[in-house]
Amino acid sequence: MTYTSDFETDTRLNPLDLVERMAALNEWAFERSADDEITISLEGRWTDCHVSFQWMDEVEALHIACAFDLKVPEKRKTEVLRLLSLINEQMWVGHFDLWSKEGVIMFRHALLLAGAEATDRQCEVLMECAIEAVERYFPAFQFVVWAGKTAREAMDATLFETVGEA
Predict the structure, then answer these.
(1) Can you tell me whether residue 32 is helix, strand or coil?
(2) Could you tell me which Pfam families the record lists for this protein (predicted)?
């Protein structure tokens, strides 16, 4: 279904230009493969992150997908899916998905910009949300994939936070 309006349409900046500038200023490795996609690679605390930004012009949304170096073997997929469910219940922004065919977990989110332009800060926050989510939950994925833990055990260990100093 297509809707039309009598509103003036003006040419807006491509938000990927802002993302490209952010990557260059932070000296992150990046590749602008097309006008509507840029990929950034950066080193995280636990794992390397591979972040893809896509400008989806038809819905005026800036989509981010952040994959990381962890392959899910077939025998652990069911438990990883349980973990994804538990993690996604905790998420306020974005969510994690498992791309079953490739065995890859990724964080995904989209910023809907219909009629508006993205700002530098919005692009920064998208990146921060993705990296923070991966950093927070990567150990839980490791516990399930490599240590054979259950999703609940992995979540309990990951969400355990110490208070105070020894």
Answers:
(1) strand
(2) YbjN
CA 10 – CA 89 distance, rounded (Å): 39
Instruction: Yes or no: say if 113 and 13 are a contact pair by the CB < 8 Å rule.
Output: no
Residues 6+ away with beta carbon under 8 Å from 74: 103
Between CA 65 and CA 86 the distance in angstroms is 19
Please state the pTM of the whole predicted model: 0.84
Contacts with 119 (C-beta within 8 Å, 6 or more apart), sequence order: 18
Q: Tokens at residue 151, please?
A: 């999703």
pLDDT in tens, 85-140: 999 999 999 999 999 888 999 999 999 999 889 999 999 999 999 999 999 999 99
